[in-house]
Specification:
This protein is an alpha+beta fold. It has 3 helices and 5 strands. It has helices at 3-10, 60-82, 107-122, and strands at 28-31, 34-37, 88-99, 129-135, 144-152. The longest helix is centred in the middle third of the chain and has 23 residues, at 60-82. The two termini are 18 Å apart. Strand 1 (28-31) and strand 2 (34-37) form a beta hairpin. It has a 5-stranded mixed sheet, covered by helices on one side. It has one domain (3-152): 2-Layer Sandwich (60s Ribosomal Protein L30, Chain: A). Helix 2 (60-82) crosses helix 3 (107-122). Residues 5-147 form the Endoribonuclease L-PSP/chorismate mutase-like domain. InterPro entries: Endoribo_LPSP/chorism_mut-like (IPR013813), RutC-like_sf (IPR035959). This is LysR family transcriptional regulator.
């Protein structure tokens, strides 16, 4: 078990299996020393625990937890191409999409779920640039979707 996976276990979490693509794309691709994940939904065991708009059917706190699930799914996708999460040199960028009710403006707080979890797992390597974007709808009516870019150490 890698040190990163041991840290995940210390937090009472488990690295999930890679979420299978919903369409014609790969969960993650590597280009040079970078791994780019596709947008990760908060799938747990092949299902979305909640659906709907944040600020309507889903609370901001529920969505924040779902964003953390997205980040964990993103780490699984990174491992699928990098082979070992200990190769992560740093998280470079996180982009979070929040399916938002018309008057909901708390997208940054929701995406903090992903950012905070990456920091808890990776420490200083988890500090990153970020965008938090409100959108009308996401695939499968998911409340949140997160994509991650990481830089790897050499092979």
């Amino acid at each position: 078990m890698s040190a990163v996976e041991a840290r995940i276990a210390e937090l009472g979490l488990k690295l999930p299996e890679v979420v299978p693509p919903l369409a014609a794309y790969q969960p993650a691709v590597q280009s040079g020393v970078y791994v780019y994940t596709s947008g990760q939904l908060p799938m747990v065991g092949g299902e979305l625990p909640l659906t709907g708009k944040v600020g309507a059917e889903v609370t901001a706190e529920e969505a924040k937890k779902l964003a953390a699930t997205c980040a964990l799914n993103a780490l699984a996708a990174v491992k699928s191409v990098a082979g070992d999460l200990d190769r992560i040199k740093r998280v470079v960028k996180v982009v979070g999409f929040v399916a938002s009710a018309a008057d909901f403006t708390g997208q940054p707080g929701v995406v903090n779920g992903a950012s905070e979890l990456l920091g808890e797992i990776l420490g200083d390597k988890g500090v990153h640039a970020r965008s938090a974007v409100g959108v009308t709808v996401l695939p499968l009516d998911a409340p949140v979707e997160v994509e991650v870019q990481v830089e790897l150490t050499g092979a």
